[in-house]
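Box 3.1 A note on notation
Throughout this textbook, protein chains are presented in two layers. The first layer is the amino acid sequence; the second is a token string describing backbone geometry. Keep the layers aligned when reading.
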Amino acid sequence: MDRINIESTDKASFYQQMVEQHGSPLLILDCDQLVHQAHALMLALPEVKLFYAIKSLPHSAVLKTLEGLGVGFDIASSGEIDLLKKQGALPRNTIHTHPIKRDKDIRNALRFGCTTFVIDNIWELEKFIAYRHRVGLLIRISFPNPNTAIDLSRKFGCRTDEVSLLIQKAKSLGIHVKGLSFHAGSQCPDSANHVFAIQQCAKIIDEVYENSGKLLSILDIGGGFPVEYIQQKIDIDTFCKPIRAALSQLPEHVQVIAEPGRFLSAPTMTAVSTIMGKARRGETSWYYLDDGVYGSYSGQLFDHAIYPVTIFSDIAETETAVLAGPTCDSIDVIAEQIQLPILSIGDIVVGHQMGAYTSASSTDFNLFDKATVVVINQLDQNEGNVHRIHEQQ
């Protein structure tokens, strides 16, 4: 999809109706799209148990929909556990993947019923001495993340030569190590990072068994499954084909799990904002929206994402323009040096692929209203029908 897409005004009616009904700015959360994404990944990785990375879009409608599909939850904080409690999620369907935790975070997770945790160093391992009879640990390994949007190999993960030492230390402490984990990076352009890491983990699993007789029974292959922003669309089955081949070489006793976040959540949300002001500065037209990089477009700052945007106009002629957010900070610019038709105050601007790391990282800067979340196509499990829910986030 192009960065800026101009469509005829007759295609704007749905968004105009939503704004008239719910105000602006909006984030429209489509549960049908969420189900589509989940099914696509399940088909691409049929032998892999999915645990949704709540951090990408921590919304109750997302959790409810995914739990209904049998997807588990990857949690990283006590706040995410609280959200799951409110949802009534089953604790046995969760893993705690943050490699660094406070003792109160561990205790809170255990009270909830989560018993699988990730570590990557000896100090973190020692935090589980008091809980050694209640937990199973995964050791996170750092592998290179070349060519990814966000390199996740630097902040967390031990070296491959440290794995055996951690397993030996865990054994001496009476703590059960269940398996290994890694993250291949965010928005991987291909599956080479996953394949390399899986192959290295397979070697480690074999070496650990040969040297100590210990069977590692879980491999967590993390996330990194890509979605389309403005780059060429990547077919998820094509992306996962080499991963399936690599996983087929693992010992039969190894259960494989994954932590998809962006792939599930990004396509489920559409941002709808309106032009609240305009100005002419030199040869450039500035259009000021009621949402920006301190709000729903926060992923442009924090997540290195560039979102496709649709403008609705029947005017063919274009001019150089800027789309800016509402705050008083000059960094609050969504797109500049772009070609747009002449727009008016009140016109609608739509951002696509806006589910992942958008509302989750939006701020209260200037105390502008955050976008209202409108949930559509959510199955009412009590009545068995599909309906629209209006929800203020």
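The longest strand covers residues 269-281. The two ends are 28 Å apart (CA to CA).
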